[in-house]
Amino acid sequence: MSAGAGQRVTLEACRRGLGVVLDVLEEFRMPCTFFWEARSLRVLASTGREMMERIAGNPAFEHGCHGLRHEDFSGQDTGVPIGRHLTLEMLHEASNVVESETGSEIAGFRAPYCRLTRELRSALARLGYRYDATLIRTAGETWSLQPYRLAGTEQSVWELALPRGRDGQGRAITGYLWQLFEGRRPPEDYIEFVSLAGQYPGGLFQLALHPWHLFMDENGQSLTEQRAARAAHDLRAVLAGITSLERIRFLPAGAYLKKALDRGLR
Confidence band (pLDDT; 50, 70, 90) for 168? Predict the structure, then answer.
């Protein structure tokens, strides 16, 4: 779960959404990996100590990084790519904030906007990150939901890619839940999508979300009270449906990678 806030997203929406997500995770006793934007984490930690204590004190949760200020490292939107030195500097500062505020060793990284640059790959290797979870791939003959060595990191960082595929009507679908929260997809679509993971024993199927999306749409507009309540209901429905599936085990991403390496992944 990426817990950052983009330019059009308010920290209040992030805080409220995080509270809902935390309630749901605790209700289902479900582990989670939080990818924190350091700026937002610092504010949330200073204004919501009780919530942060619930998160940092839960051994089922692990913590990763989602940038310092949700930077556009690629320059795709700003027109100014962030260079090698500054990328390393920003990621180092963000990593320190995440570890300081959560009291946990940092686990992995997910790039803002899912844009993984050459400079970010180099910085991840320099800073000793175990894995990245940015890239989105289609499961099939060339990828079976397994971790693989991330190019550009001197073979030191593993990639835990997010799944992409087709639903029952042939429409493209990913493990991100934004369409669910905006009412564009029913919970059943995601439950069906996760069920396909049974074709790839030992693979990692990630569901991902931004907490603010429970209260704001992708354009930064607030959801109606009814739509927000429905989003929380649908999140519960997805998790309830997935827990009923056979041969599915829930783990944080880093814990999964450790088990994969223990069984001989090379």
Answer: confident
